[in-house]
Amino acid sequence: IPARLALIERLRTAATAVDRTETGLILHLPGSEDVRADVASFVVDETRCCQFWRFAIAAEPAAVELRWDGPPAAAAMLDRLSADTTEAAAT
Description:
The chain is an alpha+beta fold. It has helices at residues 2-14, 33-49, 75-90; strands at residues 17-20, 24-30, 54-59, 63-69. It contains three helices and four strands, in the order αββαββα.
């Protein structure tokens, strides 16, 4: 669990912006190799752990977008993640 929490923290602090969608979040991240590796690892780990999450990765040379969707029951958690990530992106 410590390694997964560290990975989530790296993604949270790397995010340059976050959009809250009706069903989830879109994290806007830099396109560095480290961030790309973290995104890929995160999606694999979270998909294995929590099959109710849905992920999509859109990568361009300079940026990565991670779409993270969940069921209606996860709305409060997604709201909290959105607020935390938005706060980190603003600093």
